[in-house]
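Supplementary Text 2. Reproducibility record for the structural model of the 153-residue chain.

All settings were left at their defaults, and a single model was retained for analysis rather than an ensemble. We include the record here because the model underlies the residue-level annotations in Supplementary Table 4.
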Amino acid sequence: MSITINPLAEIKSVNIQGNGYLLNGTMSVPMADGNREYELIKLWIAEGNTPEPEYTEQELIERNKQMLITAVQNMLDNAAKAKGYDSILSACSYAAYPNPFQAEGQEFVAWRGAVWAKCYEILAEVEAGTRPAPAVPELLTEIAATTVLEAAQ
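Retained model, structure tokens:
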């Protein structure tokens, strides 16, 4: 009695990943002829299977949201650095107690709050479907048009 093993049975999932595939959620497989896993994936596709996208729609939405949030954080940090602070957090730390930088620290605190309020207002509109997700430059321009950092002037 002989046992026939179907090598395609090893394939549980295939996702597109950059210039290759992600096999079974764990193995990156380059599109390289002669690579055992790539040859199996080609057979799997030839049998009528279709690789899934690298990310689901929800994952793409979340990645875009995180990219926008990171861009806003960088904008805040860069504004503080332009005034000689390490970051927005550093600038805001001067707001609470009397010191030569207290007024400027308070301005940074107020501006930071306004920036995040506007950012999350825009993100809520995107989630609600009332507007498309903005590109980073568009988001930063819109936030800059509605919030003013007095310390920068």
